[in-house]
Specification:
This is AT4G21390-like protein. One of its GO terms (biological process) is recognition of pollen. Keywords: Disulfide bond, Signal. It holds the Pfam family S_locus_glycop. The chain is mainly beta. It has one domain. Helices cover 9% and strands 30% of the residues. It is built from 2 helices and 10 strands. The strands form 2 sheets. It has an 8-stranded mixed sheet, with helices on one face. It has a two-stranded antiparallel sheet with strand order 3-4. A hairpin with an 8-residue loop joins β1 and β2. The longest helix has 9 residues.
């Protein structure tokens, strides 16, 4: 490998390798936390379960967009879909869907397994839309105020 990030699955599932990372080269995708602090081979796990995992009808899962990334392995091509909104909807209808992207000339690609071998680039790469619970998206996050009397 040319860099540490070129080592296959360097940061584990749902971990992203970034040679310019401010807190080391491995970090978790937003909405995820390390399974074992300091042991990146175990990767990251979702902080908040998805709507379909919680069996509730309030709120919708959302997508966080990572730009300039190396796409993870094990995608399922959905060549019949070329419209990003159709690809997004197909992903939302499947609770196993963790991410999607649409690539010109290829179409929709969906990831139903753990995302492995993610790498952040300074430029180039692709955009990847990662499914997270709606509460993980900044503007929708509710803050609690605790008043001590």
């Amino acid at each position: 490998p040319d860099t540490e990030c070129d080592q296959y699955n360097r940061c584990g599932k749902f971990g992203i390798c970034d040679m310019k990372g401010t807190n080391g080269i491995c970090s978790c995708v937003h909405g995820y936390e390390p399974v074992s602090v300091g042991n990146w081979s175990r990767g990251c796990r979702r902080r908040t379960p998805l709507k379909c995992e919680r069996n509730i009808s309030v709120g919708d899962d959302e997508f966080l967009t990572l730009k300039s990334v190396k796409l993870p392995d094990f995608e399922i091509p959905e060549h019949d879909l070329v419209n990003p909104s159709d690809c997004r909807e197909r992903c939302l209808k499947n609770c196993s869907c963790n991410a999607y992207t649409v690539i010109g000339g290829i179409g929709c690609m969906i990831w139903n397994q753990d995302l492995v071998d993610l790498q952040q680039f300074e430029a180039g790469g692709s955009s990847l839309h990662i499914r997270v619970a709606d509460s993980e998206i900044g503007e929708k996050k509710k803050s609690k105020i605790v008043v001590i009397i």
